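Q: Joint fold for the lines below.
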Amino acid sequence: MNDNKKQINVGLIGIGTVGGGTWTVLKRNAEEITRRAGRPIKITHVADKNLDLANKVVGNDATITDDAFALIKNPDIQIIVELVGGVGIAKNIVLQAIENGKHVVTANKALLAKFGEEIFAAAHKKGVMVAFEAAVAGGIPIIKALREGLTANRIEWAAGIINGTTNFILSEMRDKGLTFADVLKEAQRLGYAEADPTFDIEGVDAAHKATLMAAIAFGIPVQFDKAYIEGITKLESADIAYAEQLGYRIKLLGIVRRQQDGVELRVHPTLIPEKRLLANVEGAMNAVLVKGDAVGLTLYYGKGAGAEPTASAVIADIVDVARLCDSEIAERVPHLAFQPDALSTNLPILPMGEVLTGNYLRIRVEDKAGALAKITAILAEQDISIDALLQKEALSKGETDLIILTHICKEKAVLAAIEKLEKLETTKGKVQRIRREELL
Amino acid sequence: MNDNKKQINVGLIGIGTVGGGTWTVLKRNAEEITRRAGRPIKITHVADKNLDLANKVVGNDATITDDAFALIKNPDIQIIVELVGGVGIAKNIVLQAIENGKHVVTANKALLAKFGEEIFAAAHKKGVMVAFEAAVAGGIPIIKALREGLTANRIEWAAGIINGTTNFILSEMRDKGLTFADVLKEAQRLGYAEADPTFDIEGVDAAHKATLMAAIAFGIPVQFDKAYIEGITKLESADIAYAEQLGYRIKLLGIVRRQQDGVELRVHPTLIPEKRLLANVEGAMNAVLVKGDAVGLTLYYGKGAGAEPTASAVIADIVDVARLCDSEIAERVPHLAFQPDALSTNLPILPMGEVLTGNYLRIRVEDKAGALAKITAILAEQDISIDALLQKEALSKGETDLIILTHICKEKAVLAAIEKLEKLETTKGKVQRIRREELL
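A: Joint structure:
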């Protein structure tokens, strides 16, 4: 072992699930990690408001405090690991750590999606790294893949199952034919969904992650406020069953795609062909599919949450930072993959109306002659072409479900068509619409 | 753009498929790659014995020569890309480039699997990098994932479909019910298999790659001569069909696994449960499944060969090297993931007899009372327990196929049992045996 290299001291702020996992894994695998990094890496200080918890987890193996800012000021600490979460105190912690010349490792997607511009600019100015592998897709090294593994490529798009809670819910709805509400209750009981599951089921968490992916894939600023976000609360079991009959599965995807004039950044339920590996990612697992112009399709799969999987990403970042910690080139790879002075200037986030997708439409229709003709006429008017059509046997009351898969068309054309479809006297209630991607 | 950073000059040796792809992609995406790397990266010199080809591909955009060693001596070149292949001249090129203080990027798995120890030691001594992302699984950034993305983990095992030719053949055999020989011919016609396909179909190519994976996963020396290698030539369509009836698919896997006293390093056809993503990797695609103690299972999927996918990996390495090219810490990450003076000393490659696997046994038996009793007695004697049993209806001649899936047991116990099974008077011909992995 190279004895010239001194131990790296890490200050860990937040000893909850991921913090506890980070502590445990770094301790358990200390010997192997040191053999990789070439120098010992140790969490020397831990800060948490809950001193009892901190004492229970850490014991006498690190200095414990309830003052996060004491760690940030400590000249013996080179790397601050922020696992507080949220955009309140965490923002101050990260910005002050940077200001004090500390490198930062964080799993905080909400913080970076909202304040990434400010944070990365401050870090670049100070010559420190803010590493965030754990912020997207948990233990999967997707940030490293996008930012370093695929540097040769013009990234065309990425599409990911990047929220385990919603994927668990959708998998259960399909497997057991249960309603969204019933599965959500079960997920909460099993700990796969939080007591307040809004951020997950409304797609906000996935949008935080997609925002970061868009930035590093295309060299654009972090722009969470421009993301289109639609959750899974309106999905019905019937849609999952109809999709299956057509050879599709429904997944909540975070999708970022480069068009000629801008970038699509969107989170919504999506029909994808059942043969794709991504369609077979079940339960709480995550996966990201990336299309590069040279490499073609690559896929990255693993656990997107949980104490040790997330700790795996946090520690990979710590090691990465530790390797160049005390050099002048700590910012070896730019935070957002592209040099800060070389971001794309001609790639705004496109308004949702300009987004291109295929579609699944479920229309409850009166089983009357001529109904189908009127529907297809409306679609034709908007230049929407039909890829597949499924008419179910009549339900009660002389009504039936008509399922239409459309080819790719603009969002605004679909919305215009739906508005007209809903006004037809043969149409009962709302048209259910789910976007569809072939992912090729 | 940071103007302080000078252009990196690359010397490319070998302008065949991958070399041509590297030239094309680096040229096409030059602007985007520069924006990532923070400095222009250019192939300024190209060497190939075939000057006509080099002229055709490169034109006047680089200096062309048929003397590879002229590039290695050129003081203006910082990075040598070796895409000659094989273990003859390529070895001299790589070693002399290192000796001259050049960084090397190579896709040459055969060279590194056989002479990695010598090459990496020389590079470490000189403080230069020998980067080899393209040597394993083509465009998939699996070396980066194993060496950097999963540093927090004690890697337990990795199992990969790391040879596209054999995966294409096995996929076609299953889809179309054809024999190995027929599909091989088709694969050769389509360009998925070479005129002399030995290295692919006998598992040698996969073993080169598995050897490198074992080294970086477990911190052990590169030891190709200790790898167990079994190809796919003896697989019959019947086995693929029987496996399917039992819920399995057959894939040629490269498997590296840590046991208490050593490491398993092996390539062979393997039954894997059809529900695993790995089982659904079809055609010429590659994928590697990795089990880490913290992260759990992660999977990496993409194209394992071809001009541009391989170029994607070559260029990612060039950019990686370019970032630290002229610094004193070019060897930021050790070649074999662990510091050269911190390799594992207590993890020899285990002899095949000590390897643990489940098994598929197909026994052609005379349809006689008592035959099954004798077979199960032999297995019990070797402490091999049966997980599933499938007896087919009698074939012609009063014979039938008996399929047995065993639980995990030692290789030597299985071999001993097979020897006895083949001596039974009710057994006709050889016992077909294929290993089986659950991959959990």
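Q: Anything notable?
A: The CA atoms of residues 10 and 294 of chain B lie 39 Å apart. The first helix of chain B runs from residue 17 to 28.
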